[in-house]
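Quick note —
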Amino acid sequence: MFNVLLVAEGPTDAGREIYNEKKGKKEQSDGPIQIFIRRIMDDCSFAFTVRRPVDVKNFPLLRKGKYISPEDPVNEKLPGMAGRLCCDHIAYHQDVDANEFEIVYAKVRAHFINAENEDIPCLAIIPKRMIESWLLADTSLFGVDFTLPKPPEELWGKEKAGGNHPKDIMGMALAGLHKSDITEAFAELAWEADISVLLKKCPISFYTFYCDLLLWAAR
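Predicted structure written out below.
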């Protein structure tokens, strides 16, 4: 069993808490990140404890105003948080957005040093440009007439401006499928997507994630 501390940006990336009436408590649903990990490893022996980047001390302020300052005393370091939550592996998600993949990936990896010094394997999950880019890669999921104006990892532009922003294109794709619950739709797409297509269509970030995941899970 892998007990994973997963730090992810939001519910469309890592699921949300859903109240289980039979158990009388909230449970974390899987989002695309957990689903991709389960599918690639062909193994469901993963237990994920999900937290947000604002909970973690000493991570980079990659987008101005997005996260609490790394110096804020209410945050925690990754090793301490993992230990407190009884987690033996760490996975950290950060979208690239308009930044360079290599720069964001290197910054996140650099902040794994403390955890890896304590023998806690760490996985960087860095979609270029965002999780929507990965989910759009298998265009067969959206019908025979659906095409992308650019390769998934190159989609970008001003949001809600009728351009090539991944969120706008995903919105049109989901409208064609008559999907209104975005969080559920993203999870469904992650289960249905052809992993080999994602590796081909997202050769920078998804391929890196795939290779890093195999090494991470082997530790």
